[in-house]
Specification:
Length: 104
C-alpha cells in the first residue's frame, strides 16, 4: 500500500509535496501532455507528510481510494524515477485545472 497522486494534480503540479517527502519518492512526469507527479509505491513509507501539503487535495492515503490512479502512479514510476525535481509553484497560485479549488 502507498499514498497515491490523483487526477487533480494533472495540469496543476504545485510540487510542494515532493519537498516534504523524507524518502524522495515523488517524481515529476508528463502524462497526457500535462504536468503531473507520481508516488513510487515501492518506496513510499506511508508517512502521510505529503497529503496535507497539496494545495488542491490531489493526494489520497491508500491505493483503495483511487485504484485507477494507483495503477497509473505505478505504471509511470519506471519512466520518471530519475527525472530532475519539478519547479515549485507558490501554494496560493490559483489552480489551472478546471474544478480545482485551493484547500490549503
Ligand atoms: S502538491 Fe498536489 S498538485 Fe502539487 S505536485 Fe503534489 S500532488 Fe500534485
Ligand atoms: S506518504 Fe510519505 S513517503 Fe509516501 S509519498 Fe507521501 S511523503 Fe513520501
Amino acid at each position: 500500500m502507498s499514498y497515491v497522486i490523483t487526477e487533480k494534480c494533472l495540469g496543476d503540479r504545485y510540487a510542494v509535496c515532493a519537498t516534504v517527502c523524507p524518502v524522495e519518492c515523488i517524481h515529476p512526469v508528463d502524462y497526457k501532455g500535462q504536468e503531473f507527479m507520481i508516488i513510487d509505491p515501492e518506496v513510499c513509507i506511508n508517512c502521510g507528510l505529503c497529503l496535507p501539503e497539496c494545495p488542491v487535495g490531489a493526494i489520497v492515503a491508500s491505493e483503495d481510494e483511487d485504484k485507477a490512479y494507483a495503477a497509473i502512479n505505478k505504471e509511470l514510476t519506471a519512466s520518471c524515477k530519475n527525472n530532475p525535481p519539478a519547479p515549485e509553484r507558490p501554494k496560493n497560485d490559483p489552480p489551472k485545472r478546471p474544478g480545482n479549488k485551493l484547500i490549503n
